[in-house]
């Protein structure tokens, strides 16, 4: 069990709190943020929830999912509570600019590898945790908080997001235990349906098009696929709705690693998602381009043309031990 004593001491002396996560929030960021906000409010705290971008589409059913603001607050809180963000800069340029000059206290819950640079007064960081939401669960237990149904769904959503619905190697004993405990609070079957079965019909049309253009290397062990802004507009899909593309490709038996490049700014800025199986480590690949993540799931941003990005990852793929 993690030591939350310093975290709790700071919280005890904080009335106004800003909660935030990383840019392009994923289910773990969303779920852990919503759960923390709800728990803090039950403690009588005044909480402002900030998000840099919209939350994942399949989390719309979560209680208070529409309570976050994309406006950087203009007041100074007693405390900044950051979730699932390995470095404070990942909270977004505008938010980080405000937070970095603030004299308010700052705390962190996270499960990514990072170096402690003294930015936070206190942090609970566990690279071995399946999700930041698992750390939120530990904290709730530590303070003796009885989770509501909404908070239980938030935490389950976060763990499901980072474990592929308990399918990935990250679904450790703790993750399975937590979900089993939460299943006594939530309607588990209904929750799974809302998490997995929410894809719009045009998702499949775009996915079919993307598959047709994907490239395979190393006897099909390496896959490269791309998605463009034009496709998103044509199929009327949002960025978060196409994130499952790379996960579906990873299900192919022969595939060991997938590189998905998504256009962010026409022809010059791209977001890479890297997904792998088994012992193939994505982290060193992402770090070469200033990114990061987990062993089997990482990402980075690439500045340049599509062909330059494609060439860069293919060169890396040729050196991998698969």
General description of the model:
- The chain is an alpha/beta fold and 322 residues long.
- The chain folds into two domains: 192 residues, inorganic pyrophosphatase (n-terminal core) (Alpha-Beta Complex), CATH 3.90.1640.10; 117 residues, Diaminopimelate Epimerase, Chain A, domain 1 (Roll).
- Strand 3, helix 3 and strand 4 form a beta-alpha-beta unit.
- The longest helix is centred in the N-terminal third of the chain and has 16 residues.
- It is globular, with a radius of gyration of 20 Å.
What is the number of beta strands?
A: 11
Q: What is the rounded Rg? A: 20 Å
Count the DSSP helices. Answer: 13
The CATH architecture of the largest domain can be given as Alpha-Beta Complex
Percent helix, as a range, is 25-40%
Name of the CATH class of the largest domain: Alpha Beta
* Percent of residues in β-strands: 15-25%
In CATH terms, the superfamily of the largest domain is inorganic pyrophosphatase (n-terminal core)
Domain tally: 2
- The unreliable regions are none
Given the helix and strand composition, which structural class is it? Answer: alpha/beta
Q: What shape does the CA trace take? A: globular
What's the helix-strand series?
Answer: HEHEEHEEHHHHHEEHHHEEHEEH
* Mean pLDDT over all positions: 94
And the CATH topology of the largest domain? inorganic pyrophosphatase (n-terminal core)
Strand order of the largest sheet: 6-7-8-9-11-10
Sheet having the most strands: 6 strands, mixed
Instruction: State the end-to-end distance.
Output: 36 Å
């Amino acid at each position: 069990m993690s030591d939350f004593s310093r975290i709790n001491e700071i919280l005890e002396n904080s009335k106004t709190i800003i909660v935030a996560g990383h840019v392009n929030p994923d289910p773990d960021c969303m779920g852990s943020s919503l759960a923390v906000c709800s728990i803090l409010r039950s403690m009588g705290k005044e909480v402002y929830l900030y998000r840099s971008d919209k939350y994942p589409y399949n989390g719309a059913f979560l209680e208070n999912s529409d309570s976050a603001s994309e406006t950087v607050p203009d007041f100074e809180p007693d405390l900044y509570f950051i979730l699932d963000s390995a470095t404070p800069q990942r909270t977004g340029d505008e938010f980080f600019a405000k937070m970095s000059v603030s004299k308010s206290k700052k705390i962190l819950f996270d499960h990514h590898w990072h170096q402690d640079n003294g930015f936070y007064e206190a942090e609970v960081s566990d690279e071995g945790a399946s999700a930041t939401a698992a750390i939120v669960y530990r904290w709730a237990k530590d303070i003796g908080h009885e989770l509501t149904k909404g908070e239980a769904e938030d935490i389950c959503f976060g763990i499901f997001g980072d474990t592929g619905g308990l399918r990935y190697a990250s679904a450790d004993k703790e993750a399975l235990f937590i979900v089993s405990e939460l299943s006594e609070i939530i309607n588990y079957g209904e929750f799974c349906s809302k998490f997995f079965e929410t894809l719009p019909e045009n998702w499949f049309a775009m996915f079919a098009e993307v598959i047709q253009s994907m490239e395979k290397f190393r006897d099909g062990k390496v896959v490269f696929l791309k998605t463009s802004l034009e496709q998103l507009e044509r199929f009327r899909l949002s960025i978060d709705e196409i994130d499952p593309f790379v996960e579906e490709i990873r299900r192919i038996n022969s595939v060991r690693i997938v590189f998905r490049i998504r256009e962010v700014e026409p022809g010059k800025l791209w977001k890479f998602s890297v997904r792998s199986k088994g012992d193939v480590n994505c982290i060193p690949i992402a770090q070469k381009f200033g990114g990061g993540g987990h062993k089997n799931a990482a990402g980075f941003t690439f500045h340049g043309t599509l062909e330059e990005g494609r060439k860069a990852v293919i060169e890396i793929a040729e050196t991998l031990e698969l």
